[in-house]
Amino acid sequence: MIMRKKHIKKIMIFIGILILFMVLNNTNFFSGKSEHQPLLLAHRGMAQTFDISKVSNDTCTAEMIYKPEHSYLENTIPSMEAAFKEGANMVELDIKPTKDGQFAVFHDWTLDCRTDVEGTTMDYSMDELKKVDIGYGYTYDNGKTFPFRGKGIGLMPSLDEVLSYFPEKSFLIHIKSDDAKEGEQLAKILSKLPEDRLRLLTVYGGDKPIETLNEKLPSIRVMSKGTMKSCLIPYILTGWTGYVPGTCENTELHIPEKIALFFWGWSGKFIERMEKSNARIVIVAGDGGFSEGFDSKSDLNRLPANYQGWIWTNRIDVIAPAFQNKHTE
C-alpha cells in the first residue's frame, strides 16, 4: 500500500513538472515589448466595401456596396497603388484565366455581376477584357444610381501588367479555382521571374493548383486548405514541445481569430516558431469566412498585446493610419 502511494506520488510529480514545462514553454508572459509593428495585407487593394455578414457564395457584392468614400475599384492598378501609398505591406489580388492564355486580375466567377458583359474571363482575350467596364454594376442604393458606370473601362489588368508596374512590391496571388492546370500555367509565368522577385510573391488557392504550382516551382511560398491542415494539425498535437512540423516550411497560414488560442504559444511564441520555418502568419477576423478583416479601429483592440504578425484588412485606408497614429503617440 505504501509502495503504491509512493508510485502515485511520483506520477503526480511527473505530471506536475510536465504541465509546468508546457506552460513555461508556451507562455508569452516573459516576452518583452516589441518595437516591431504588425504588417498589413490589403485585400484586393483599396476597394469598395459591403456588409460581409450578408454575403453568401452567389452574392453579387457590387450590388450591395456602402455609399462610396473613395473612387477606387478592387483588383485594379490604381487601387493597388493607393493601398501601398496608405501603408500596405502587401496587396492581395485575384486571378482568372483568359481565352488567350493570360491571367486577368478579377475576382468573380462570372463577369455578369460587376461588368457590362456576360460569361467568364475564359470567354474573352485579355485585349477584349480591356474594353469591359468593370465599374458597370456597382450600386449602393438598390440600382437607383451607378456611381462607377463608365469609369471602369480599361481598368482590368493582366497579372503581367501588375507585376511589371510594381516590380518591388509584395503580392498575395489568389488562384480562384481548384483546377491544377491553372497552377501549371501560373508556374510557367512566375518561373521567368528572378528569385529576388519570387520572394516577394505568395500564391494561395485550391489544393490542386497549389500542389501543382509547388511541384513546378518549389521556391515560392504557398497556401491552400491542404497545406494549412498538414502544418497546423500536427502542430496542435506536438507544438507544446516547441516543435514545428516540416510541412509548415515556406507556407502562409491564415489564422482566424476565433481559433487562434488553440495554437501553442499564441501569439508571440507561435509566430516566432513559424517564422523560423519561413512560415508567414496572417490573422483574419472572426472565423475567417468570406474574407473577414480587421476593418475598423475598434477591431484592432481584439489583437493580442504586442502582436507581431500580419493583419488582413479590407480597409487599409482606415487601419494603416490607425497604426501610424499609434506609432507617433
UniProtKB/TrEMBL annotation:
<dbReference type="InterPro" id="IPR030395">
    <property type="entry name" value="GP_PDE_dom"/>
</dbReference>
<dbReference type="GO" id="GO:0006629">
    <property type="term" value="P:lipid metabolic process"/>
</dbReference>
<protein>
    <submittedName>
        <fullName>Glycerophosphodiester phosphodiesterase</fullName>
    </submittedName>
</protein>
<dbReference type="GO" id="GO:0008081">
    <property type="term" value="F:phosphoric diester hydrolase activity"/>
</dbReference>
<dbReference type="InterPro" id="IPR017946">
    <property type="entry name" value="PLC-like_Pdiesterase_TIM-brl"/>
</dbReference>
<dbReference type="Pfam" id="PF03009">
    <property type="entry name" value="GDPD"/>
</dbReference>
